[in-house]
Amino acid sequence: MNVELIEVTRRFGRTRAVAGVTMEAGPGVLGLLGPNGAGKTSLLRMMATVIPPSSGRIRLLGRDPGGYGQRRQIRRGLGYVPQNLGYYPRFTVVEFVEYFALLKEMPPARVHHAVAAAVERVGLGDKARAKLATLSGGMLRRVGIAQAIVNEPELLLLDEPTAGLDPEQRVAFRALLRDLGQAATVVVSTHLVEDVGAACARVALMDRGRIVFRGTPDELAGRAEGTSAAGDAPLERGYSAVLAEVRS
Amino acid sequence: MTAAPVVPAPARPVRALRVPLTAAGRMLRLELRRNVMPWLLPLTAGLFWFITYRPSMAYPPMWNLRAMTMQGTSLAVLVPTVVGAAAWLGSREGRHGMAELVSGTARPRWFRQLAAWAATTCWAVVAYLGCVGVLYGVTARQAAWGGPLWWPVVVGVASLPAFSALGFVAGALRPSRFTPPLVAVAAFLAFEISAQFIHGDHSYWQVSPLVAGPWEIGPDEGVATFYPYLPDLPIAQVMFLAGLTAALLGALGVPAGAGGRWLRGSAAATAVVGLVVAATAVGLAGTGRLDVHGMIAIPALHDAADDDPIRYSPVCSRTAVPVCLHPAYAGYLPVVVDALEPVLREVAGLPGAPARISQVAATYRQDPGNGVRIGRAGPPVSGTPPVFHLVLPSHLARRTATGDFAAEVRATVGRDLVDAVVGGGRGATPAQQAVADGMLRTSTLPPGSPAAAAARRFAALPAAARHAWLVDHLAALRTGDVTLGQLP
Amino acid sequence: MSRGGARTLPSGSPPGGAARVGLRLAHLHLASRRVPAALAAVAACAVGLRIALLHGHWTAYGARQLPLIFETGCAVVIAATTASPFGEPERATGRWLPFLRLGTALVLTAAAAGALAAAGTGAHLAGGTLDVLRDTAGLTGLGLLCAAALGGPLAWAGPAGYLMVALYALYTQWHGPALTTPWIWPARPPHDVGAAICAGLVFAGGVLLIAVRGARDTVAGS
Description:
The complex is a heterotrimer of chains A (248), B (488) and C (222). Chain A has 248 residues and is an alpha/beta fold.
């Protein structure tokens, strides 16, 4: 298993953002759904080794991120796109992705090819020399994805990766996710259930810091049967049904 | 976007690297390309021209003058720009919301911070060396003698990593819009104010890179002309700057999150070693003493070989009594000869008059206060045939600028010369004073006094009559046996 | 969005009317420009000047150079407040923004000049209050012009560069040849009309430009 979480909690002051999550994930695409403030981003940040858990145990790629040496090993095989992607406006697309390739300790000899591949993979080959300040929001999002996949990560964590992408790009992105999920563990946090339906083999639904559902997208859609849950699509209705059940 | 695992040829192929670089090299190259310092280079160049180059060119083309002026003023130009730019870069991750993204990468935070710092420093060094190169290049074409002084350049180059580290650490620790401007101005204030605390040659504050020699003297032609430029103080300054740089950069690697335990331990050790080195340098600067040749000597760092005079061939005038100057002063020779010519005409042919005027090194002595006494070692005239040892007034360049150089030479050197011949000086008799004033056509005696009247009388004599009287009575005048009444 | 039963935001004009709304708007604008922090920095400059004047022995050009450094400190802080954290959404709002920018610049300049003049009370402040007022206004104007041209974050470069020119010009008053152009106003005597006009023009130009156009949004250098 690439991701093992056992009773993981995370507090920010008095707020408990993640409240005892236990979860495992192997290769494949896992969709992480939930309303605003459910704890998805905090969970993802812990998996990205950006923040430590307040309690519980985390193992990523078979290693414990608590120790610096092992954390560094994990990070070499990690790709992460945070919800709010920062960037240096005067870097070009290639420079930005190269910067992260170097920070991820890729062998220098491989960097050039890997950067070109990542930039092409997100469809920004013709913008490779453009400064980030000149790119649209959707293109910046794709740059963020390029930096995350440049090291061909074993564990890829994406927080709202399709925000700002146009429909055509989202379709391409889902295909990319499916492709990446063949070898790596991909965890996608999103509000968009159609992304989950199209790209994720498994789905987990969070509410108030806990995972309240886990299964396949079909199983989530099935939870709406016999209920009057709101939604325009089966997955949306399943999502609403689970939340309504949990909160009742 | 494409899901294809195989990468198609890019529409605009990414240019291949010509030289294989290590990860650190590639990182540095990236940071160099996107550094803020190049934006500030035009400002730096303009300020260098205005504050360093223009005033330096107003000085005579002497290496010591220009190099020592350059050290302080060029660093003053670079302090705010380098510190501000580094602080700007140090706060970059916070300003651009990149902290979250980069903290999840494998390389320690220290690595990427050092890369950004190094890039800023590289640009600053390039700017500095470019400016100094122009100044030295022009000086090399103009200078009559000698070669570039490198220690001021070394101190300047060593200052830049320290300035850059100072700004970077401030920006990294407190990423705010106010940090770069405030830290730039504060660093400049600290840099400039450091000189205010220098009192005497044993001041710890001499470790400031602003100081290129004894602070009270400032750039002076006599320093590092007859004797080598002493590296003692520059070595202490470079030690201090290197220690400060290490301490600041080490401090950057100590906080949690900067790296692993080993790395943070190394950073802490670097910081401690840096502090010790910097403190040692300050201590060494405090043991400095003004040496007789006008430079700060630090006993623990002093090499006795630096006390050997530099060999040179003097440049001499083709006058009856040749006036010989150090070749570095070649530009001053016509003015000195013109200034002394009336005096030399008066003394020529007198018994015991010098057959040659030869410039010697001035001696420097620290006064108990904050002053420096500049004088001559030994008697003014010695040898057979007699040679008058000329010490030119200090800070000639300023006097040249104000146009009273010739008057100054006549008043000081001319007086020394006449005193040496007629036996004047501190214990001079009224007759000796009157004769000296009469020969020099000066009026230094109390107006209305008998001596002043005698001097006027003596000056009014025809030159041949004066000369004839001096030939006859010079021996008695020297021994003080001539009274005012006996003067013609 | 709010669910039934949840507290809703009050609608309509708050009690107190337009004046209160105006004050609230000014308060929020000042907070967005981090004016409280800027005022703290200005106060720190004044305290620093006071300490330096009382505990240092400043003569000749050093006595006139010292206040100039602290005046520059205030000017760069004021210039840094011009950067907007909101960018284009703020530019697309109503007619009040130029007045808010103008008011902020004037208030901060007045505060800086007042604080520095107060710091010199009872101490030997070379040049006196007039000098402080003229130099602070001129340097601030220069900072505001730079903010309009380069953006708030890099605006400090202008006053910092000018500081060095001015310090050198002051030095030349003692070690000639003296620089006497009124455009280097800190090197002119406090009552010099030409210098006051130059400083005033730069200040007026900076304040007007920053009020009308605001600081440049582009980030120069990452």
